Amino acid sequence: MAFWSKKKKSTTPSARVENGEMPAEETLIGPGWRLKGRVYGKGTVVFQQAFEGELEIQGRLTIDPSAAVKGMFRSEEIHIRGTVEGSLEGTRMVKLETSARVDGDVTTPRLQMMAGAYLNGNLTMEAPQASLKRQRT
Amino acid sequence: MSVTTRPEEQSPALSATGTNTPGHDAPKTSAAPFSVISRDICIEGELEGSENLTIEGRVKGRIQSQGDIIISATGNVEAVVMARNITIQGRVNGNIEAREAVEIQQQGTLIGDCRARSIQIREGARFEGRSEILK
Questions:
Q1: For residue A102, what are the domain limits?
Q2: Contact check, Cβ <8 Å, A24/B5
Q3: How many CA atoms lie within 13 A of B134 on its CB side?
Q4: Fewest beta carbons within 10 Å, which of A44, A46, A82, A99?
């Protein structure tokens, strides 16, 4: 519609969220929260405390240094700064930062591991297409 | 990327849902930081915490908080909810209990029993269930 096409576009993310042009897509489970169960959907998910269960999202998962999580995690991008017990599958990439401690298996086409990061488990490097195909099924 | 807990004034529940417009009262909440469940995320299970929480997505199960909970206009909760203050702008199906206040805002829906020290139901809100005032 012409009316909408004339609307001035906002530039800052917060203004775009306010105008409904961009969804507020970050889920933040802050340091005061414990979550047990299943998380799914799309967007960015950040854990700053405790989680136990299964997570499958289209988007990015970040485990902050204060967080200790347990379970199965599947996402396009996974950034680990905290403690993980369980399996990680990043269909695009997995990044283990200096403070990361992972006890479990990692499957991804691309792994970035910073000096000081700890990984105890199997690492499977998978072609990007195979990962994406598995994510669609 | 450095992520910090969002302060209340930046909560997308107030900005993204358009409930902060004139004619709507801001929810009664403390100034503590908010955790957020965004609109495209579903959670099934138990959430337990001491902080405030804004729900823009879906939650099924049980939520227990020492802080305040806002179910924003896009939020859909099928759960037992216990918190200090509960503000409903979206939809809740389940029993809720607030140590202080429950507010069902315009367009908000609560299907379930409600227990609180004060209960406020705005014009246009929907409430089906029993209510009990705690002393």
A1: 33-136
A2: no
A3: 14
A4: A99
ipTM of the complex as predicted: 0.78
Q: What is the pLDDT along chain A (137 residues), one digit of tens a residue?
A: 444 444 444 443 344 444 544 444 899 999 989 999 999 999 999 999 999 999 999 999 999 999 999 999 999 999 999 999 999 999 999 999 999 999 999 999 999 999 999 999 999 998 766 655 665 65
How many domains, chain A? 1
Residue pair A46/A65 in contact by the 8 Å Cβ criterion: no
Tell me if residue A126 falls in helix, strand or coil: coil
Question: Distance (Å) from the C-alpha of residue A60 to the closest C-alpha of chain B?
Answer: 11
Task: Count Cβ atoms below 10 Å from residue A79 Cβ, excluding itself.
Answer: 23
A126, part of any domain: yes
CA distance A83 to A66: 8
Q: Domain ranges in chain B?
A: 34-128
Q: List B133's β-bridge partners, or say none.
A: B116
- Mutation target vs A (from B35, B53, B72, B74; most A CBs, 10 A cutoff): B35
Stated as kind and residue range, the H or E segment containing B44 is strand B41-49
Q: At B56, list the tokens.
A: 């823009």
Residue B28: CB atoms within 10 A of its CB come to: 16
What does chain B come to in residues? 135
